[in-house]
Design goal:
5-stranded parallel beta sheet, 15 helices, alpha/beta
Length: 397
């Protein structure tokens, strides 16, 4: 299949892995020459949950040297959603005049009072949609009811929500509104870089987010924190090439923003999407993220000019602050401090069938990736993590 098979070619994989190992050798030799301490495994964080699933689905980590350790970041919008936002949605949906709509992953994220599917079972009119435009279509079909779209996601989904608000305003559809819970990427990465217990050596930047915002918003990572970063696509060879680009930067003592995903990402991003975002959103001064607490300037809200399409202006939304169950360690996993299998609930009380935390619910969650593509346990003999295939389906490249 053209433009897919080319990025999954096993003959190319071997060459890239060899090139990665040569750069790692350069790093080790340089450290020995400078009488530095022995090289520890490089800590490379893939921010996006889509990258995490590619790593596991195609067995990429098993191809990498033990001198590289992938750290799984918080780049899943459903996973960083605080449970209080779910409870707010449940309260909005309890209004008999409301049709609440959202994406499928958000339906099963647990709040204190259950999830949206539980609320639907209790009689609330909650519907899954594939796009905010689907929600707008429902508002046209049901002018007598209020249709609320539970808007969430990083910059990948922000333009589609903004364009839908603009369309609703253009048509004068007054029974449509959004409950805005969009998050921006750069402040979230900044919070990670200020985490005292993390010592990261480089980042794989999210390709879909970069398609919207371009490359400039990531410059602070290289300039202020001296960390190399590579904007990365989602196929196996995309990720391997990006890892090669990162270790090459480290070997050459460089800290740059490089764009591996040039076939999709342009330096200036998507001008139409950026215009819609600037038109509809303001920066929200303080936003709560699961596992991180409150982060300044991480979220957005609807501008006053579009208050008629802001659910928080139509309903009594309290923005509750709630905590995950104390035994759930989603926050530590999201920040890369522990791996999913190190959580005592993983695979026991918490599984895709009975999720205790959002990371096991989302299709991009790290815990779901571990569980669905091979239960991972410590390999005491090698000091690394071994994959035990529980799906009877070998996806390795």
């Amino acid at each position: 299949m053209k433009y897919v098979d080319e990025f999954r070619d096993p003959s190319v994989v071997e060459g890239i892995c060899d090139a990665i190992n040569r750069q790692l050798d350069r790093i080790e030799k340089a450290r020995a020459k400078n009488n530095d301490s022995p090289m520890r495994p490089l800590q490379l964080m893939e921010f996006c949950g889509g990258h995490t699933h590619t790593l596991f689905k195609y067995g990429i980590e098993s191809l990498l040297s033990e001198r590289i350790e992938m750290v799984h970041g918080p780049g899943c919008p459903v996973c960083v959603l605080p449970s209080g936002r779910v409870d707010d949605c449940i309260e909005i949906a309890a209004n008999p005049n409301v049709i609440l709509t959202t994406f499928g992953d958000a339906m099963r994220v647990p709040g204190v009072n259950g999830n949206l599917l539980d609320a639907k079972a209790r009689g609330s009119d909650i519907r899954m949609v594939y796009s905010p435009l689907d929600a707008l279509a429902l508002a046209r079909q049901h002018p007598e009811r209020e249709v609320v779209f539970f808007a969430l996601g990083f910059e990948t989904t922000m333009p589609s929500t903004a364009l839908t608000v603009l369309q609703a305003a253009k048509e004068g559809i007054s029974n449509f509104s959004i409950f805005c819970n969009h998050i921006t990427t750069a402040p979230t990465i900044d919070a990670i870089l200020n985490e005292p217990d993390l010592d990261l050596d480089g980042f794989l930047a999210p390709g879909h987010v970069s398609m919207v915002i371009g490359t400039d918003p990531f410059q602070f990572i290289a300039q202020d924190y001296a960390k190399p970063i590579v904007i990365t696509g989602f196929e196996p060879l995309d990720i391997l090439q990006s890892i090669l680009m990162l270790v090459t930067q480290i070997a050459e003592s460089r800290c740059d923003v490089e764009n591996q995903y040039r076939r999709v990402v342009e330096a200036g991003g998507n001008s139409s999407g950026l215009f819609a975002m600037q038109e509809v959103y303001d920066v929200y001064p303080v936003t709560e993220l699961r596992g991180f607490g409150e982060i300044g300037n991480a979220g957005v809200c609807v501008r006053d000019e579009y208050a008629a399409w802001n659910a928080e202006c139509k309903f009594d939304v309290q923005r509750k602050q709630t905590k995950d169950p104390h035994q759930c360690q989603c926050g530590e996993v999201l920040k890369g401090l522990i791996r999913p299998w190190q959580c005592g609930m993983y695979g026991k009380q918490c599984s895709p069938e009975t999720p205790l935390g959002a990371l096991m619910v989302s299709s991009e969650g790290a815990c779901a990736a571990y569980y669905n593509h091979g239960f991972r346990v410590p390999d005491k003999g090698k000091g690394r993590i071994a994959i035990v295939d529980t799906t009877h389906n070998n996806h390795a490249v």
